[in-house]
Amino acid sequence: MTIIATGLSAARSGRIILHTTDVEIRRGERIGLVGASGSGKSTLGHALIDSLRAQGASVAHVPQSPDEALDPLRSMAFHWREAEQALGLALDPSRKQKLFAALRIEDGDLRKRPWGWSRGMQQRFVIAMALIGTPDLLVMDEPTSALDPVVAAGMMDLLDRYLSDRRTALLLITHDLGLAAARVLRLMVMAEGRIVEDAPTPDLLRVPRTEAARSLCAHRNWLALPC
Amino acid sequence: MLTVDGISVARGRTDVLRDISFTLAPGRTLAVVGESGAGKSTLIAAVLGLVALSKGDITWMNRPVRHCRPALVMQEPRSAFNPALTLHRSVMEPLRAGRLPGDPVRLTRLCDGLELLPDLLERRPSEVSIGQAQRIGILRALIATPPLVLFDEPLSALDAVTQKHTARLIADLQREEGFAALIVTHDLGYAAAYADEIAVLQAGQIAEMGPAQDFVTSPKTAYGLTLREAAFALGALEHVA
Questions:
Q1: Rounded to two decimals, what is the model's pTM?
Q2: Residues B100, B60: one domain?
Q3: Are B35 and A148 inside 8 Å of each other by CB?
Q4: CA dist., res. B236 & res. B188, Å (int)
């Protein structure tokens, strides 16, 4: 199944922050949406989620900040139960244990409210909630920004296996081309509210055609070492 | 020279730092890497004298560190400034605190080095981008010519392109000014690219320490190897044919 959203656009205070955009994502495809801060990546992600949900598609979303996903007045156990119930899933402790162990939050006290957990643990909890069901598309907005590298790498590896098993599509929104290039096969580059380049990852890395893509490519890692 | 000699820091009955020793010479950069909770920020606080040592001593040129007036660059640049003041007033605070004369030539030279237009300093923190705010934070840290500058995750709030650009500006200024830089970061790629030495902090102890290039090619501990592999997995470091 191919996911298609057309005519996505957004304006803020009379200024267009997302020019009319169409997005097509094939089943199981992994796409990186990359660009500098303020280029419109998260806005496109939100517009895409709204459009697809209106069409009845199942879309899981990991927002950039766990604050956007967690109610400070509710316990972590409440959030987990609510997510399972929203997806119509039976309570399954083994599912929770597996995800929590993989994301290294098994020691988290579910009786506590979000502010009783560290930011990194909150972010991993939100990622675990997104992995409960089998959505058509998983949208992750800067999923590693609150995590330290060892946990982030482990989470991305877990995600790889999860996506492969379920053929769930991924839209990875990030300013970090190095992260995206290591994880996805297709890259969309955003600048000033537009997708300015859309190409297979190796092609874009080899021959970036736009200034935005060239800048990202030139800064995609800290060091390149010989094999 | 900064000398950290066998320090420990206790919180309750737990040592959050244990038997930490290293030296850092002027003009050199030491990056301290490690996972969240390893004690990286506590180490910065210890060098600044903000937490009590349960053991050991920290000195700059054999005197207490406070005498050299070390500077700190914080992780979240906008919250590091008083929102009610212009950035110019905040930048000049270290000079006022030290009762030092302002030097317009130096201010202009630092602004040039950090690619900051002087009129930006007349704005308030909320009126500049996060990348500009961090460069102004570095300007404030350097304005009083400190011999020692501590950087606590200085790039983590910036996007990938701005991170690399800011790192280069810091390194260029360090070459001109000759300050010693102690950088705490969880980004091994940044540490490998810009530090002379890397110390890996794990559960409050230095697991390994050595030249940055040696660490990238052959970490000595299993944990160091894990950190390096994570940097490759996240694209911070890359293998090329």
A1: 0.86
A2: no
A3: yes
A4: 8
